[in-house]
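Collaborator request, handled under Task 6.
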Amino acid sequence: MFDTGTTTFMLIATSLVMLMTPGLAFFYGGLACKRNILGVMIQSFVSLGITTILWYAVGYSLCFSGGEGAIIGNFDKAFLSGVHLTDVYPGKKFPEIVFISYQMMFAIITPALITGAFANRVSFKAYLIFLVVWQIVVYYPFVHMVWGGGLLSTWGVLDFAGGIVVHATAGFAALASVIYVGKRSNRTSKPNSIPLVAVGTGLLWFGWYGFNAGSELEVNGITAMAFLNTDVAASVAAITWLIIEWSTKKRPSFIGLLTGSIAGLATITPMAGFVNIHTAVIVGILAGLGCYVAVKIKDWFDWDDALDVWGVHGIGGVIGSIALGLFATTSINPNGADGLFFGGGSSLLLKQIAATVLASAVGYFFTYGMLILINKITPVKVTREMEEMGLDAALHGEVARD
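Structure tokens returned to the collaborator:
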């Protein structure tokens, strides 16, 4: 019935993806100024609690129950109704409850990614409302459409581990948030702890193996290829970013190296189990160059994306999702498709472009509209006085550093 090895692997992969959320909290916490360390970290950690409850109540059902070829699922498995200990996840060799847990970890970290963009500016109450509504309105439909047998899946769109579902939606939601809440009153503050950023990067990189390799939902050669592609793309992107900054600023930047690695991880995510190792090298270079340029574009437009969520995650997800239409090959994954460069013609590429544009647009416009509505319930942006005091003390009554 159950394969012990596969079940064990999926439990480990689930644990690795869970670790990414604390890793993200450390990453963002180190980049924030010292008056807002806890304010940005709690936004990641609170998702562990609230998203878990939401996933149990309706999330899993809306994403993976019914709704074949549709935009969203149904409530047949709300509160995990009808899910039993002995149920095998369809077509696989492990319990359905393991799959529920695995996908729940994706749901936890996705809205948390957005928080780095509006660091220091959004009230905790407004964020909690946003955390719930954004998942229901944006994240769940795309999970269902791509991974739950919904509209985009039946159309032939590919997304191995979340370039469209996770990074494009969250990245462009981050951009909408930045434009809606406006700029910080003080943008000169520097990261409070680069070592903490390094710890967060290490945890994210480590957890990403579960994120990408685990998405095969089996233990086979594709699993191993996804694992290796993840590491290679992150490494190449890190060095690419380092070289660019060293050439332009005449100094090698540790923050640049770390940021480049995250860009590589985000960019390879939709492709990890569909491409060969040579493509992973190319993707690493594209990630380092493309995301670096995106950050410069953000600076040129004067968007106050505090921790470069749009430039790294959003654009990384877009690059990877579209490049999949060029580099996918059935010689690596027979369940995928051949991209333009491997004899598949332009069909997959056009589908990937359309799905990526759709996810980016929905992530942006739905988020902007959502923030307008939330602001009618409770102020989204904190007062200037609270911002200058720091959200740690002003909202939470706690400080990380005296």
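The cover message to the collaborator said: "The CA atoms of residues 271 and 324 lie 6 Å apart. The domain at 4-379+387-396 is CATH 1.10.3430.10 (Ammonium transporter fold). Please let us know whether this matches your experimental observations."
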